[in-house]
Design a protein that fits this description.
Length: 774
């Protein structure tokens, strides 16, 4: 009979030794040391406590079934002699140890993980060690590693190890070297997570390796069918064609066996989305021809509200049939996870978080930044997909300026070390990279072509503060002009937009269409409103919105009002004015609202830089054209770069140097000074609550199916059903400030979502304005 160790199971019906060797084999292609983490990651499951738990037998102290720390200490015990002989660096040994002890929790601060437990934890280890078949384990590991493996114990020189690790981490000092080591840690950890999950699920080694699905042929067919943008001024259409052709041709301008940094800087409405997709598809072909494997194309946008629009374009490019999840993945944050999210591999949150395994993935900047810095189980797994991919950052100027130096280092390392091609796409290229570091794809257009993008005048009217009542009067006056112009108003807060909406709708004739658009509405209702606005051509209509319409939303208005904001946001707002060049010359009014919410939302540095750049440009008449606005942006970004301090960058790089993964994602912080180490684009996860809102019977039916899936006793069926429901569920969910949240129901703790049934919907929600905030 085989030794007891070799009879243990890792999962029901699966031998532990088979799983350990399988995970190690999957990791071998990613580096010579990584199989060690694979061999030891679940070794702690060999205790009698875990085996009892796996068989459904009672375990008096459930902490005794925990296995990750035991496997990590076991591995570290094996590695330290190699460190003493200089066969292995201390940082390498500790990384492998961290990967094992954190493979269910996410990477923790390295220094805090030595030792990984208090006295009670030490007592638990002692009991676990006594419940192991040491002789059988030593025999199996010695054979698997082809070298002696001694008996494990938990008595390690933790204080000495901390000192050695501190010195090792401080031995690397340049930003690029620090980031390189950090990204190596993320990728190594993500590789373990992926291998472990795939092995446990039973996927074959190359189950997710397949030829590229989307090809340049799909895009050529899309264009041949007349789908290259909407109808517009023939000169605008011609300029879009030039941009597309230049971007596709530019994909071959650099060797395909390495990653590079690219930019695509063109006016709003110039067709950047299709040009970027054309570049990405051709670039992937170039990479494959040079010997690199097929890679995903990850298309990131600043707001969840515009992901569906991009995904809709990609579905049209694919053709008549709906692309499956292996072809097109849409990943963004849907709902705040509740307690279930922390309860193990079958949690709701993990069920709905994409692994970025699709051929093309649409996601958000938030998810990309989390993948670059946070080191959670899911984020590290996604980093392993970023490494070696094609990454498009659309409207990159939306990233806060304090993070620009950090993003510079992260993307340069991602490109040079992992062969990732990164494209930064915007109408207003921020000063993230020096011109010598990047390859610009936009062609040098002729004077005649450049003149096409002179579609509006900007009226700078920020010297005097304007009340919402006065602004409403101005909007109503514009809409009442003889030729019935359409009007867009963009304000800095949801409350301002709602208040102005009420004022304008109460003043204009009832036959004038007035719309509101913000994240106060469910995605389903935002989509409906956008579709209604698209049909308003020739009719007088007003849209009062927040910055949710400033990126990627294909709308065009005769007149735009924009509350004072960073200049890149002003450019995006102006890009909705006479977008296709087919109407009368557009008018963009930049106004200063009385409450000066721009300072609260964006900060003093950006608003002051915008005001200074605009004042210089509009000093004489207060009016300038679209080309002058683009020139103004150059001065604006120069001012932002010089006025933005590097203190945040230095604090974050210190955390990256010391592998303070928990601090980087904002957990475990007790000292206020460590808050500067947090890298988060949106700091509101604790401030909002997700609500599933039922407006009609279809919403009620989706909730019924969701409830049935949650209560399913079969984890596999549950995961599958939740994954199928995810898109429709997210369309009916709205995040609400805790101040305005409804009463939590019994399902909230397990789902993180408050259910608002159809019977009480009108108390809380309006389909035209969204959540009721009174």
């Amino acid at each position: 009979m085989a030794p007891a160790f070799q009879r243990c199971e890792s999962h029901p019906g699966k031998l532990l030794t088979v799983h350990l060797r399988d995970v190690a084999d999957r990791m071998a292609r990613h580096g010579p040391l990584l199989p060690l983490a694979g061999l030891f990651h679940d070794a702690g499951k060999a205790t009698e406590f875990f085996q009892m738990y796996l068989k459904g037998l009672p375990v008096a102290d459930l902490r005794l079934k925990q296995h990750a720390h035991l496997g990590g200490v076991w591995l570290l015990h094996h590695l330290l002699p190699k460190v003493a002989l200089n066969q292995l660096g201390m940082d390498q040994a500790i990384l492998l140890y961290l990967m094992v002890i954190c493979h269910h929790t996410g990477l923790k601060n390295a220094m805090d993980s030595l030792p990984p437990a208090d006295d009670s934890g030490q007592e638990r280890w002692t009991k676990q060690l006594q419940a192991l078949d040491h002789q059988g384990a030593e025999l199996w590991f010695t054979t698997a590693l082809n070298e002696p493996v001694s008996k494990v114990d938990s008595k390690l020189p933790w204080t000495k190890l901390r000192r050695q690790l501190f010195r090792a981490l401080h031995s690397v000092t340049s930003d690029l070297a620090i980031m390189s080591r950090f990204q190596h840690a993320l990728r190594s950890f993500g590789t373990l997570i992926e291998a472990d999950r795939d092995s446990a699920t039973g996927y074959a080694l190359d189950a997710f390796q397949s030829p590229a699905r989307y090809t340049i042929g799909h895009l050529d067919q899309f264009r041949a069918n007349g789908n290259f943008g909407v109808a517009g001024d023939p000169r605008v259409v011609s300029a879009r064609q030039q941009l597309f052709q230049a971007a596709v041709a530019g994909a071959n301008s650099q060797p395909g066996n390495s990653g590079y940094l690219w930019t695509l800087t063109a006016s709003t409405g110039a067709g950047k989305t299709l040009a970027a997709l054309g570049w990405a598809l051709r670039r992937r072909d170039t990479r494959i021809a040079a010997g690199l494997p097929p890679c995903p194309i990850i298309y990131a946008l600043p707001f969840t509200s515009i992901i569906d629009q991009n995904a809709a374009v990609l579905r049209r490019i694919w053709g008549d049939n709906e692309p499956d999840e292996s072809t097109l993945g849409v990943h963004h944050h849907i709902a705040e996870p509740g307690e279930l999210a922390q309860s193990g591999e079958q949690s709701l949150a993990r069920t709905w978080v994409e692994g970025w395994r699709a051929d093309i993935v649409c996601t958000t900047f938030v998810q990309v930044v989390n993948a670059l810095f946070h080191g959670t189980v899911a984020d590290a797994r996604r980093f392993s997909k970023l490494a070696g991919s094609i990454l498009i950052l659309d409207e990159v100027q939306a990233i806060p300026s304090k993070f620009w130096p950090l993003i510079n280092v992260a993307l340069r390392t991602l490109s040079s070390q992992w062969n990732t091609d990164v494209l930064l796409m915007t109408a207003t290229q921020p000063a993230i990279f020096e011109s010598t570091e990047i390859h610009e794809l936009c062609p040098d257009l002729s004077e005649a072509t450049r003149s096409v993008f002179d579609r509006y005048d900007v009226h700078v009217q920020t010297k005097e503060e304007l009340s919402l009542t006065s602004l409403a009067a101005r909007v109503c006056a514009v809409v009442s002009e003889p030729h019935n112009p359409s009007c867009l108003v963009i304000l800095n807060t949801i409350q301002e937009a709602l208040d102005l909406f009420a004022l304008v709708r109460g003043t204009l004739p009832t036959d004038t269409l007035v719309y509101h658009l913000s994240t106060n509405l469910r995605p389903k209702d935002r989509k409906r409103i956008l579709a209604e606005i698209a049909k308003c051509a020739g009719h007088s209509h007003v849209l009062i919105a927040t910055q949710v319409v400033e990126a990627g939303v294909d709308l065009s208005f005769d007149v735009v009002f924009r509350a004072l904001a960073p200049l890149d946001a002003v450019v995006q707002a102006a890009g909705r004015c006479n977008r296709h060049g087919t109407g009368p010359r557009g008018r963009v009014y930049l106004v200063n609202t009385k409450d000066q919410t721009g300072h609260l939302i964006y900060g003093d540095i950006l608003i002051a830089a915008a005001r200074d750049a605009l004042t210089t440009r509009a000093a004489q008449t207060g009016i300038f054209s679209e080309p002058n606005l683009r020139e103004c942006v150059v001065e604006y970004f120069r001012l932002v770069a010089t006025r933005t301090g590097r203190s945040t960058h230095r604090k974050v790089m210190e955390a990256i140097q010391l592998w303070e993964f928990a601090f980087l994602r904002g957990t475990g912080i007790e000292d206020q000074k460590d808050m500067d180490k947090v890298v988060q684009l949106i700091d509101e996860r604790g401030e909002t609550v997700s609500h599933y809102v039922e407006v009609d019977s279809s919403d009620a039916e989706i909730w019924r199916q969701f409830s049935d899936a949650i209560s399913s006793g079969d984890p596999s069926k549950r995961r599958s059903r939740l994954r199928q429901l995810r898109p429709e569920f997210g369309q009916r969910t709205v995040n609400v400030s805790r101040r305005f949240a409804a009463h939590r129901d019994s399902l909230f703790e397990s789902t993180g979502v408050i259910h608002v049934p159809q019977s009480v919907c009108q108390q809380f929600y309006d389909i035209n304005t969204g959540w009721k905030r009174s």
